[in-house]
From TrEMBL:
Example GO molecular function: zinc ion binding
Pfam families reported in the protein's UniProt record: zf-dskA_traR
Domain Zinc finger DksA/TraR C4-type: 89-119
Organism this protein belongs to: Thalassospira alkalitolerans
Superkingdom per UniProt: Bacteria
Keywords for the protein's UniProt record, in alphabetical order: Metal-binding, Zinc, Zinc-finger
Name this protein carries in UniProt: Conjugal transfer protein TraR
Positions of dksA C4-type zinc fingers: 93-117
């Protein structure tokens, strides 16, 4: 795959997509900070919390840990996408090198694959 310039994709509003990604990154970081207390270990003090309440607290903690895992995965996708924008490789499929459809990128600016390659990956 040859090195491409962002200017080759005149059909994309790169500034707008970058702004969306940066706003989403800030939103995720805010949610992560807000839920930090919910992810802390659950206390073992049986006097302070009954058994069922503790089970609820453990389940709640696990849900918040999973949400955080998903937030971190999305942040990783956003950071990789911003790097592709900066290196002028944004908008092209990682597998085949063809341009990714504009509508696909507008729906999910972090997608690294064209529809055809994504279909092959999901069927593997």
């Amino acid at each position: 795959m040859s090195e491409r310039k962002v200017s080759e994709r005149k059909d994309l509003d790169i500034a707008f997509l970058r702004q969306r990604l940066e706003e989403r990154r800030a939103d995720i970081s805010a949610h992560s900070t807000h839920s930090e207390d919910y992810r802390k270990p659950v206390e073992l003090d049986q006097q302070a919390v009954g058994r069922l309440s503790r089970m609820d607290a453990l389940q709640n903690q696990q849900m918040h840990l999973e949400q955080e895992r998903r937030r971190l995965a999305e942040l990783d996708r956003i950071e990789k996408t911003l790097s592709r924008i900066e290196s002028a490789n944004y908008g092209y499929c990682h597998n085949c090198g063809e341009a990714i459809e504009k509508k696909r990128l507008e729906f999910d600016p972090t997608t690294p694959l064209c529809v055809e390659c994504a279909a092959h990956v999901s069927h593997s």
